């Protein structure tokens, strides 16, 4: 049984014991022991599918959890000035130490009610138009952009398509590519498809150790290739979507370490590592001028991938 399955089992046992009053202490202790044994394994023994499950665990830090621990003076700005205020994608100015920055973030909910309000971090077109509005402000006031990615993808519903979902994502990608200020994108947990790439055009792209980043989720990939979403584990292996994979392939510049077992076990440790990585990358990017930043960003993405002439 994977670590994610064990964590889920423990949560269910504790909830059942609390709600029914039945003594399940021996079962709880047994599961906790198995969890500790699993955590003791080295991270190289964690499969790609297990990392995907870790990225989805309840209690894993969200964007706002990292904001609370890393940034100060955050002021959320609302609305896209065209349709409405998308709560799946939020942002505004903040301070990282003594440095003023512009935050753009995808935000998951903490519970079912909050997830519905946040639309499970799947933004509508107005969310991406809000992101572009924040990018305009960042350029105007010369604020480095920090984008925190955490979504399985943009919302695919009819209403989103009617309001120009694909167009909004394309415009957001274009706008971010032209930023005259440093831009850093961080995949916190899940980074799915164009919904993630819309705010992923950074001069540097970082990933938390147990995050995944891919053009498609393992379940959707399995449904297409094998006509069975239960083959998700096989798809995850084929996609090579984990942080170590993408670092090796040159898709990301840095993997941010998490505590053994996942960021949910020690959010402060994960946040401190992310703070150090952001400060280090911003210090490096601050040496580049506006035009150099645009050129470096363009060159970075043009260099991704390989082709062979036959």
UniProtKB/TrEMBL annotation:
<feature type="domain" description="CoA carboxyltransferase C-terminal">
    <location>
        <begin position="30"/>
        <end position="284"/>
    </location>
</feature>
<dbReference type="Pfam" id="PF03255">
    <property type="entry name" value="ACCA"/>
</dbReference>
<dbReference type="GO" id="GO:0005524">
    <property type="term" value="F:ATP binding"/>
</dbReference>
<keyword id="KW-0547">Nucleotide-binding</keyword>
<keyword id="KW-0276">Fatty acid metabolism</keyword>
<comment type="subunit">
    <text>Acetyl-CoA carboxylase is a heterohexamer composed of biotin carboxyl carrier protein (AccB), biotin carboxylase (AccC) and two subunits each of ACCase subunit alpha (AccA) and ACCase subunit beta (AccD).</text>
</comment>
<protein>
    <recommendedName>
        <fullName>Acetyl-coenzyme A carboxylase carboxyl transferase subunit alpha</fullName>
        <ecNumber>2.1.3.15</ecNumber>
    </recommendedName>
</protein>
<keyword id="KW-0808">Transferase</keyword>
<dbReference type="GO" id="GO:2001295">
    <property type="term" value="P:malonyl-CoA biosynthetic process"/>
</dbReference>
<keyword id="KW-0443">Lipid metabolism</keyword>
<dbReference type="GO" id="GO:0009317">
    <property type="term" value="C:acetyl-CoA carboxylase complex"/>
</dbReference>
<comment type="pathway">
    <text>Lipid metabolism; malonyl-CoA biosynthesis; malonyl-CoA from acetyl-CoA: step 1/1.</text>
</comment>
<keyword id="KW-0444">Lipid biosynthesis</keyword>
<keyword id="KW-0963">Cytoplasm</keyword>
<dbReference type="GO" id="GO:0006633">
    <property type="term" value="P:fatty acid biosynthetic process"/>
</dbReference>
<comment type="similarity">
    <text>Belongs to the AccA family.</text>
</comment>
<dbReference type="InterPro" id="IPR001095">
    <property type="entry name" value="Acetyl_CoA_COase_a_su"/>
</dbReference>
<dbReference type="GO" id="GO:0016743">
    <property type="term" value="F:carboxyl- or carbamoyltransferase activity"/>
</dbReference>
<dbReference type="InterPro" id="IPR029045">
    <property type="entry name" value="ClpP/crotonase-like_dom_sf"/>
</dbReference>
<dbReference type="InterPro" id="IPR011763">
    <property type="entry name" value="COA_CT_C"/>
</dbReference>
<comment type="function">
    <text>Component of the acetyl coenzyme A carboxylase (ACC) complex. First, biotin carboxylase catalyzes the carboxylation of biotin on its carrier protein (BCCP) and then the CO(2) group is transferred by the carboxyltransferase to acetyl-CoA to form malonyl-CoA.</text>
</comment>
<keyword id="KW-0275">Fatty acid biosynthesis</keyword>
<keyword id="KW-0067">ATP-binding</keyword>
<dbReference type="GO" id="GO:0003989">
    <property type="term" value="F:acetyl-CoA carboxylase activity"/>
</dbReference>
């Amino acid at each position: 049984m994977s670590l994610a399955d064990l964590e889920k089992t423990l949560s269910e046992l504790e909830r059942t014991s609390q709600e029914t009053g039945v003594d399940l202490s021996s079962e709880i202790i047994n599961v906790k022991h198995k969890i500790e044994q699993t955590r003791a394994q080295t991270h190289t023994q964690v499969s790609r599918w297990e990392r995907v499950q870790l990225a989805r665990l309840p209690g894993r830090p969200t964007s706002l959890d990292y904001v609370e621990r890393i940034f100060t003076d955050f002021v959320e700005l609302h609305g896209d000035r065209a349709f409405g205020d998308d709560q799946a994608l939020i942002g505004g100015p903040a301070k990282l130490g003594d440095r003023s920055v512009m935050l753009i973030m995808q935000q998951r909910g903490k519970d079912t009610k909050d997830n519905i309000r946040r639309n499970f971090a799947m933004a509508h077109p107005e969310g991406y138009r809000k992101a572009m509005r924040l990018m305009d402000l960042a350029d105007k006031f010369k604020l480095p952009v920090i984008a925190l990615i955490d979504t399985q993808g943009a919302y695919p519903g009819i209403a989103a398509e009617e309001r120009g979902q694909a167009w909004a994502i394309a415009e957001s990608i274009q706008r971010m590519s032209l930023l005259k200020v440093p831009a850093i994108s961080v995949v916190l947990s899940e980074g799915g498809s164009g919904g993630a790439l819309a705010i992923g055009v950074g001069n540097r792209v970082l990933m938390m150790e147990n995050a995944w980043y891919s053009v498609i989720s393992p379940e959707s990939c399995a449904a297409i290739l094998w006509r069975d979403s239960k083959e998700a584990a096989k798809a995850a292996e084929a996609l090579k979507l984990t942080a170590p994979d993408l670092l090796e392939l040159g898709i990301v510049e840095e993997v941010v370490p998490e505590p053994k077992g996942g960021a949910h076990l020690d959010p402060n440790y994960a946040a401190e590592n992310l703070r150090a990585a952001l400060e280090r990358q911003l210090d490096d990017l601050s040496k580049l001028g506006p035009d150099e930043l645009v050129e470096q960003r363009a060159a970075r993405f043009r260099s991704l991938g390989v082709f062979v002439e036959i």
